[in-house]
Amino acid sequence: MQEHHERPSWDDYFMEVAHTIAKRATCDRGRSGCVIARDRQLLVTGYVGSPMGFAHCDEVGHQLKQVVHEDGTTTTHCVRTVHAEQNAICQAAKLGVSIRGATLYCRMTPCRVCAMLIINCGIARVVCERRYHAGAESEAMFQQAGVQLEYKCDEVQQYDNQ
Q: Which of 10, 17, 39, 46 has the most CB atoms at less than 10 Å from its CB?
């Protein structure tokens, strides 16, 4: 009996590509990749890594900063790297590729800075695999800006030193 082949949805397809892109990431805390697509066409990709020519977390360790939020909670962030979403947006700028009206696929809710860049680039939709533990502010920003936000899985992404 022949096995039934089920084609992935476009969202699942692009998320799977983002997983492959993530294999190039150089920070084990947020080893993630990003894909920006429009009209079922992959436009650009990005992954977590240090700026070109700089040492990577995998080579020299993390550069951790603590952030104290208005509600008194504290979160820890690695600031050695450029986020996958930021690198994908930079790639679009370097190549002269318009990402207006596109969909961005990523591992978890983009951080506040990434959310602002996504909004200003005119990206219309963001599809995340999971939630980011400090993503409520980004969710509110996307809602205010009219950027559609969807999750494949409704749980928080877990990693060391959250």
A: 46
Phi, psi of 145 (to 5 degrees): -85, -5
Asked if residue 62 lies in contact with residue 48, where contact means CB atoms within 8 angstroms, the answer is no
CA distance 35 to 79: 21
Cβ(90)–Cβ(69) under 8 Å?
no
What tokens appear for 32 in the block? Answer: 């993630």
* Ordered mean pLDDT values, 10 residues apiece, the chain (162 residues): 87 97 91 96 97 94 89 86 96 98 95 96 96 83 97 75 50
pTM: 0.90
- AA letter at 157: Q
| Ramachandran category for residue 161: left, alpha or beta (phi over 0 → left; psi -120 to 50 → alpha) | left
70 is catalytic: no
What are the phi and psi torsion angles at 115 (to 5°)? -60, -45
Burial of 58 (0-12, 13-18, 19+ CB in 10 A): middle
Q: For 103, phi and psi rounded to 5 degrees? A: -110, 135
